[in-house]
Amino acid sequence: MNTTRGFGWLGACLAVFALWSASAAGAAEPATADRPNIVLLFSDDNGYADVGYQGCKDIPTPHIDSLAKGGVRFSNGYVSCPVCSPTRAGLMTGRYQQRFGHEFNPGGQGPPNFGLPVDQITLADRLKAAGYVTGMVGKWHLGFKEEHNPTRRGFEEFFGFLGGAHPYLQHGGTILRGFEVVPEQEYLTDAFGREAVAFIDRHAKERFFLYLSFNAVHSPLQATDKYLKRFPDIADEKRRTHAAMLSAMDDAIGAVLAKLRKEGLEEKTLIFFLSDNGGPTAQTTSSNLPLRGVKGQVLEGGIRVPFLVQWKGKLPEGRVFDHPVIALDVFPTALAAAGGEVPKDRPIDGVNLLPYLTGRETGPPHEALFWRFGPQMAVRMGDWKLIRFKPAANQPPAAARRAEALGGTTQLYNLARDIGEEKNLAESEPDKVAQLERALEAWNAQLVAPLW
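-> structure tokens emitted (452 positions)
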């Protein structure tokens, strides 16, 4: 396996040239049922139990729920990190982000000017090369420098902000269109929905990729009266605001889905919905039940998230897919649908899920899934999950505190029998611990240290 951090300078230049040549060869083509538009809906800090189709009772999410009804719900859908930026780095590249040193949030444990390394090929790069118009709306969180701007990473259009969090009501001159600051006044979730609909309107007759990356329901907890008035029976002010923010995001998703239907594109569009990590319950009242743990931990509550895919007429409707999948799978799945090429010069850890969802392939897409977040490490193989806390001298204090909260150096759970990770079986199952330890060490040996 290739364990380097990328091509090097010459390879990166050649890759950029190849992408430019491919995209310059012709204008974007109309979408067809065989090569659909791609819409990637990404929420922020969305609790596992805070959507209707997962059992949420106090916050209706009819538009998100419609994707579960009209598509496939992943009951074991994961992200590659329990915090925002590393998950997004994995999502955009289809690779475990630790392969190229993007293990922590820039500006958190890492330096504020760090971003997705420029030698990493993004999903937008590959879809643009395949003839797609590419646009991003919302939260980026993959770097502030000019070379990290979404319009330098494969997106032809960008409206949003570059950091990890943002106010919803007072924007302070930090909302960008490309590189230009724009005087946005609308409630930010509404503005993102508006811009996403406008992107579809501009490119309805072309084949397009839209990455709509909400900052909802990440703090700060802010909502307008329009949405707060929907929840008069929620007494907890924090929970009421959280509900309003989630309802606003559901409305924005509904506007996108309605626009696709109006343009006759619903059956010509592959749609993903997922969150970047589990909910931070104490900060926002988010619920990850019945999972244990929260954002920042490799317990299930930090890494198992709401995860849906819909492609009307191509994928089953109302199906529940129980095998573990991960956000890294979006990259090869979208490229397979689009007729794009997966990079051949580096390991791609995601799997094309389409054959598994249509029934052409049976069994699990992954033999194992892995996590490393500073001193926290985990592996899932089948129903078994091993969690290990391995302190190191160079780990940031915040990362060490999160790991210590897991309560023990080695933990083993059978998730089929114990979804809440309550009964540690490490002492009674030493052979299983040893098996998963070997797999975890073999994976870890392929990775690099964080780039700071």
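DSSP finds 13 helices and 16 strands in the chain.
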